[in-house]
Amino acid sequence: MSRYYYYLLILNMLANITVFTPKLLLEKRTNGMIGSLIIAVILGITFLWIITKIFIKFPGRGLPELLESYTPKWFAKLYLLGAGLTWYVAGITTLIGYSFLSKRYLNPDMSLTMIVSIFLVVITFGILMKSQKVLYALEFALALCAPIIIVIIIKASFSDSMNWEIARMPFTYYRNLPSYETISVAMFSVLGYINISIFNREWKKPQKLKIGPIAGIGLLAFINLLTTTLIPIGFNGIDGVGDIVYPWIFTSDSIRMEFFFLERVFIMFLLLYLVISLISMVIHWHVGFQFLMGFSTFPFIKWKKHQLGKYVYIAFFWIASIQIVNRIPEFQAISFIKLYLSLIIPYITFMVLLLFFIVRKVKKNEA
Amino acid sequence: MRQNFLGLADKILEQFSQADDLIHHDIKYNGETVTLYFLKSIANEDSITRLFIKPFFEVGNLNEYCSYIRSLTIFKEFKDEDEVLQALSIGHLLVKVHYQYFLFDTKNVKNNVILETAVETTVHGPHTAFSEDFETNLNMIRHRYHEPKLAIEIDKIGKRNDVNMVLIYDPTYVNPNTLDAIKTDLKNLDKSLIISVGQLQKYMNKKSKALLPTTLLTERPDRTIFAIEKGKVVVMIDGSPFVLIAPAIFYDFMSAMDDIYQFFWATMFIRLLRYGGLFLTLLLPGLYVAVTSYNTEVFRVQLALSIASSRVGVPYPSFIEVLFMLLMMEFLIEASLRLPKTISSTATMVGGLILGQAATEAVLISNIMIIIVAAVAIANFVIPINEMSVAIRVLKYVLLFTASIGGLMGLTLGFVMILFYFIQVDSYGEPYLKVMYEKKEKSVKGESA
Questions:
Q1: How does it sit in the membrane (chain B) (predicted)?
Q2: How many angstroms away from the CA of B308 is the closest CA of chain A?
Q3: How far A93 CA sits from the closest chain B CA (Å)?
């Protein structure tokens, strides 16, 4: 596969440390969490394999093009509208999380509307770029942030405040049954492949999916989920970690760099994750935006030869985001995100069935 | 040499009636007459005497003389009268033998002196830059790049001044799509006066309002050769000591020729320094505002306290302080750029030393601000190519603005925004900024991502 495919996978793994995922995972830390993580990775990699395998049969074509040629028009439109909104919500979960985070730690004096607007300016610019350029931006963000994030995680693992005895405790609850909720939340970290449904347009040459790298990705995802959950446990204690809304922010604020010009790792961590979450939002919304453009481009809205259809969606993104962030209080946002994430498995199952249907139709047409 | 240009001589005299430097000179020998027309100011009189006047007296027979002058390598064919008039104005010689006309290229170029490098200097590389004459420059390129396939296409550009433009590329390496795009762009250029390559650089940028240079100007022959070998297209204009290289990507603007001449680790170090300078000059003003006005907890407490104590008594918020000093610095740079050399040193002295010193003593700005402004100015000069360094100079105000609005968050988001801006630019099909570029063979075939 193209290297950008792996970037998409890695981005989701990195992005899952931000905001609410660790909290949602840690809720079940003494309740079959480890089992859930293992199941989530296996399930996630299975879906990854199936979906990617189908998409590389159609080089240079994204989901909108496939739907257009192989399904009825009403279904394609409906599906694209639904998918566009789904991806929009995926982006907004990050936006909600990070704007609360910024309000609390970076800019307490600024109103939420202002914070969200600043985000939206940059994101709007990002989603209007070409798909290829979005991938370049992703590569850049990862190249800038990933090395420092890895250093922080390593530093956290070897820190004096990290108690590995306690971090091992979730393993002792292996007899408890895994829970559906935790599985679906953990699935998010191996969900990056799903963006192939738009970015497949950029991979015009035939690609090959190999077992080796994907197995590596599976292992990486598992390690990533373990560090996401175990390091906060090791720092804050298996009981204490449950009371914390942002376990990783707390954890990073417990690490000091004595001889660096920035003493608190916390601030570096926040800024790095600002970039990571931003690029993650740009990716999600770019994909959602492309789906919506597949739904309709509003060709009748124009001004002096300029097609303005796409700005309808941008306006919708802006208004909806500012409304949602202002209306939903933080604790409700968490349960809302939990609900959203628990819909991942049904959604992907449906998508897989749809793709199977398309493949069957293609074979029929060929026969 | 056709015979049907009966009124040509009269037309020349009429058109050039106000040009006192027109010479129309009859030479007579043995009852035969030959008339020479040329502009004294631009034609080479020596070679005219040597090649045309002396032989006339030695040969003595008009037929032999005609076949002699037609065998000269500087002999030019022409189609109509306008072409002759045009040719005379750029230093050609017209010879009239009875009713036959012969045209010769006897241009005398005064600006073919090879210059010292003034803008891009290196330690170890060649110290010569291009001259202002394109033929001398072609000579310099050919001299360094021995490749029989090298394409040199000479054309005219500019409706009114009709100046010589040369397109140079190596057909083995150049991407044909890029070449076509550049040629169409040059063809569609609808300007009456083209004076320098800098103008071309501006017009060839697709957007009417652009900040980032997508083509590179250089005065160095070695950089030009390097670019040709990398498959780029070089555009040269007569009378301009710079050549234009297209396409150009961000990394081209961050590399100096010294990078090739020095050892690996030395080069790596210098590159690192350059990117350090880039980040410093971009981020420092914004960072100062963010750290003093929004996120004071970022630095270790000693540093936070010393910044705060140096700001005691400063009446303005930090962004005004930064803006004030940065603008002073920009005035200083602009002033010292255009002033006569003898005055400019005084200006920098007064501006830099006295103004800075007095401003801190008057507690208009903090001491640390002076350090920051100086660091920003110096770091900006580390960027090797001037166009990029000016673009960065502008962009740091964008970051200052976003930092003034949103503190560290604004600074980071502004930085990402600038990153997006760089990434979405294209230079003739080549992505402007990308972490890794594919191997040349791949990019030539137009396959990417």
A1: Multi-pass membrane protein
A2: 17
A3: 18
Where do the domains of chain A lie, and which CATH numbers do they carry? 3-366 (1.20.1740.10)
Q: How far is A264 from chain B (nearest CA, A)?
A: 7
Give the Cα separation of A270 and A285 in Å (integer): 22
Count Cα neighbours of B436 within 13 Å in the Cβ-side half-sphere.
11
**Cβ–Cβ under 8 Å, residues A57 and A139:** no
Summarize pLDDT for B308-342 with one digit per residue, the tens: 888 888 888 889 989 988 998 888 888 888 888 77
Q: In the structure encoding, which two tokens stand for residue A217, read together?
A: 């990705």
CA angle A26, A31, A35 (to 5 degrees): 90
Q: Supply angle C-alpha B390, A140, B278, rounded to 5.
A: 30
pLDDT for position B440: 53
- The whole-number pLDDT of residue A208 equals 84
Q: Tokens standing for A239?
A: 């009981």
- Residue of A104, A107, A114, A142 best to disrupt the B interface, most CBs of B under 10 A: A107
Chain B contact present for A60, CB below 8 A: no
Chain A interface includes B441 (CB < 8 A):
no
Tokens of B68: 């002699």
Q: What is the mean pLDDT of chain B?
A: 85
Read off the DSSP letter of residue B299: S
Distances from the Cα of B265 to the Cα of B259, B261, B268, B271, B379, angstroms: 10, 12, 5, 10, 21
Kindly indicate the confidence band of residue B448, based on its pLDDT and cuts at 50, 70 and 90. very low
Provide, as residue numbers in chain B, all residues whose Cβ is less than 8 Å from the Cβ of A130.
424
Which of A5, A109, A114, A118 should one mutate to test binding to chain B, selecting the residue with the greatest count of B CBs within 10 A?
Answer: A118
Measured distance CA(A354)–CA(A352) in Å, rounded: 5
- Name the DSSP class of B121: -
The SS3 assignment for B313 reads: coil
Q: How far apart are CA A322 and CA A320, in angstroms?
A: 6
Looking up tokens 């005004």 gives B320
| pTM for this model (two decimals) | 0.87
